[in-house]
Design a protein that fits this description.
This protein is mostly beta strands. The chain is 0% helix and 54% strand. It contains no helices and eleven strands. The radius of gyration is 13 Å and the shape is globular. 32% of the residues are buried.
């Protein structure tokens, strides 16, 4: 199983990025998808998740700015990030979770927000 996160980069405050998580080796439709981020010197923390049924949740810090989605046909998850702030700077990781039995992590993609 592999999760490939992409779409990170450097943007100015107020800018947008769309992260993608391409999954191979499993059928993503049965899994919840989550995005986490980890800023330098800080612990990894959850940003957003979407259940297999499509229910979404967001950290308070990103509500109204980020949108998580999934395309089961393409076996991909996405995180649309708008109105980016400097404090969003972090390495972003995607995660696929099936109950308590299966959990997979992708490598991170760097997001840097600075002027």
């Amino acid at each position: 199983v592999q999760l490939q996160a992409s779409g990170g980069g450097s943007v100015q405050p107020g800018g947008s990025l769309r992260l993608s998580c391409e999954v191979s080796g499993l059928s993503l439709r049965h899994y919840a998808i989550a995005w986490y981020h980890q800023a330098p010197g800080k612990e990894r923390e959850g940003v957003s998740c979407i259940s297999a049924a499509g229910t979404t949740e967001y950290a308070d810090s990103v509500k109204g700015r980020f949108a998580i989605s999934r395309d089961n046909a393409k076996n991909k998850g996405y995180l649309q990030m708008n109105s980016l702030k400097r404090e969003d700077t972090a390495v972003y990781y995607c995660n696929a979770l099936l109950g308590l039995t299966s959990e997979y992590w992708g490598q991170g993609t760097q997001v840097t927000v600075s002027s």
